Structures are given as C-alpha cells and as structure tokens.
C-alpha cells in the first residue's frame, strides 16, 4: 500500500520524497527543503509521544534540547512540530549506513577502526552530556557511519532524548526502558540513568565491534537484562578468536562494562582519554591530544584529561552577556590545551557572537585542521559564511569555504545569496558559482 505521506509537503516547506526506515519509535523519510533543495531526514514519532498536553510539552522540551547539539558527531534537530497528531523531527540527511548495518556486512572490525569510530561516538556524547542530555539508548542502530574522502569514516549519533520521552511518557509500561542488549545494569531495574549508562552502552558496542558478538546473549530480553546485572562477559581474546587485542584495550572495554557505575569511566571524556589499541602490554599509552587544563593553567599540557564542563561554564558566561570574559577564559584554555578541537570550536563561536570575524574564522580553521569531521558542523558553516559579509575577514572566510568546506557550505551559501547584506549577498553568490 502506498505511503500517504510520500509526495506531500510538510509545514509548507518540506517535500517528503520516500520512506526509508521504520522502527518501534516511528518512521523516517527522505525529504528536501523546498527552494533550497537541501536533503533532509524527517522522523515521524508514534502518536503516543504527543497524545496528551503533558506529552506534547515533554516532546517540545526534548526537541529544543536536541536542537542545541552542535557537534560534528551528533545529528542535531533543525526543526520539529506535530502533523495530524504525529510529532516529527527534521534533521540533516546523512548518506551512509548505521553501525548496525555495517556489522551485518563486516561482522567485526579491526581494533584501530573500531576504536576510531567509538572515539567519535564518545566525543559526540561528551558534547551532549555537557548540555545535560543523556542519550539512554546508545546502540549501533543509532550511530550513522559515512565515508569522508581522505579522512576515513565519520560517525554521528541520532535520536538524542527520545528514550527519555519514551521513559517518562504516560503510555510506557514496565520498569525498564531501552534496548536490552545495550542497557546498563541500573537501567534494567528502572533506576535513573546518568552519563555512565551511556558509557556502559559504548562498552557493549566496542565489545561487539571487536568480537562480532554481543557480550550477553540469551533467549529472552529479560534473561539478557539479568546477565547485564549478574553475568561476566567472556574475555575479548576468547570471544574474538584469531584477533590480536592488547591487554590495554581489553581493560578499557571491561572497565566500561563494570556493573557498579562507580567503577566505570565516570565521563565520556575519561573514556576518550583511555589507551589506544596498540598499547603495549602493561604500559598504557598517553592519552591522545584531546585533553584540557584548568583555565588559569600556565603551562600547556596537550595530554591532560579534557573536561567538557570547562567549556560549558565559559559558554554559560557568554550566554549571560559577558562575551569578553568568556573569550578571555577560552583563550587561556586554548593556550593550556592547544590540540583540543572542541576548545578552538567554542572560542570561534564566541568570537562570532562578538562579531570578531577575523579571530572567529582563524579559530574555526584551526578546528578543522585538528578534526576535519567539523566540516559538516552546521554552526561552523553558518558562522564562516556569515563572515563573508565582513570587510576584514571575507577573504579568509572564502579560503576556508573553498579549501575546507566546499560542497558542505552550498546550502548555507544559497541562503546567504538572498541576504539583505549587500556585501554578503554578492560574495556568497560569487563563491557559490565557483564551487558548483
């Protein structure tokens, strides 16, 4: 039977082209933004998510929270609403496949590849946790993987906040909500989930990526949930016969899978700083240059553990109106931690808010040098395109767009080409013509 939504125009601006996937939470469609021809994904949730005024209120709160996620390893919500009783979320359309689909075709991944993907997932979750958003349902089906020419694979997380809606909705029955194979022990008994529940789920996924099997398998979901609380997973070397896995990497996975949450990594930043897969036996390798340091630290320490809370506090300072104070703090943090892309990214965004376009573009360019995955970040693209309207920074901005962003900036250039700012409009049109 034809899907009645296909071919219709939603909210007067989104044309629904085809149905792509469906699941227990709803249906996903490929769509496009009219006039801009921008590819989008629209997820219609089951009507129960907004069946009451309280449910609709929760949906709007969570949708707004998801829209605040601006990180290259998160798929943010760019619009939301309710159509004929069904709430929907509008997101960028990501070409590629889910991590679950990748596992069905490749069974398991080489340790360096698995770790590279999960470091990206941890980075995205660290950003979400800094916004006080706990995913609660991290699993391979909620991780999109797409190739990036010259830069390997780009992982992005979807469906932030939806598990919370499902958990708190009046239509939910039972004490445990989530996907049994990836639920933390505390979730299986209905306890409140914090960021350590997401750490546990990442441990399950990493175990599965390395071995090709889940750490706990049984005939019923309830037995799997019991095993999360009581059973010990097989050692990686046993489950992944024939694959060389270092003791350091095994220790990382097993710590993430600790039953008491107090024994796990206490944050995603701590998990990201764990040893790399080629660590020598008994000798943990130094954390990669993803660290952070106190804002007032004098010496640079690129290997210090990074805390997203440092950036969050400074961003809150900026939101309170003290942009200069926030910039001073972020500059100090940048000097202390010069190799952390999230610091340069936050600094660039704060400079943009202060209309300091030259400094903003410079910081964004350094962000891209440290982590090319930011090429698809919506805020970075918007700010760099906006800088085309600056007399001092427009040449720098054009170079970043041509050399680093290229086609990822086309949709934003289309919008800027209709700007009321004459300089921005003219430069955007000229640059758009060169890129096409």
Written description of the protein model:
Helices cover 45% and strands 13% of the residues. It is of the alpha+beta class and 436 residues long. It folds into 3 domains: 9-92, 2-Layer Sandwich (Phosphorylase Kinase, domain 1); 97-272, Transferase(Phosphotransferase) domain 1 (Transferase(Phosphotransferase), domain 1, Orthogonal Bundle); 308-435, Serine Threonine Protein Phosphatase 5, Tetratricopeptide repeat. The strands form 2 sheets. Strands 1-2-3-4-6-5 form a 6-stranded antiparallel beta sheet, covered by helices on one side. It has a 3-stranded antiparallel beta sheet with strand order 7-8-9. Strand 3 and strand 4 form a beta hairpin.
Tally of helical runs: 18
CATH topology of the largest domain: Transferase(Phosphotransferase), domain 1
What is the CATH superfamily label of the largest domain?
A: Transferase(Phosphotransferase) domain 1
Category by helix and strand content: alpha+beta
Global shape: globular
| Spatial extent as radius of gyration | 22 Å
Give me the CATH architecture of the largest domain, please: Orthogonal Bundle
Report the sheet with the most strands, covering strand number, pairing sense and barrel closure: 6 strands, antiparallel
Query: SSE order in H/E notation?
Result: EEEEHEEEHHEEHHHHHHHHHHHHHHH
List keywords for this structure.
single chain; 436 residues; alpha+beta; Phosphorylase Kinase, domain 1; Transferase(Phosphotransferase), domain 1; Serine Threonine Protein Phosphatase 5, Tetratricopeptide repeat; 3 domains; six-stranded antiparallel sheet; three-stranded antiparallel sheet; 13% strand
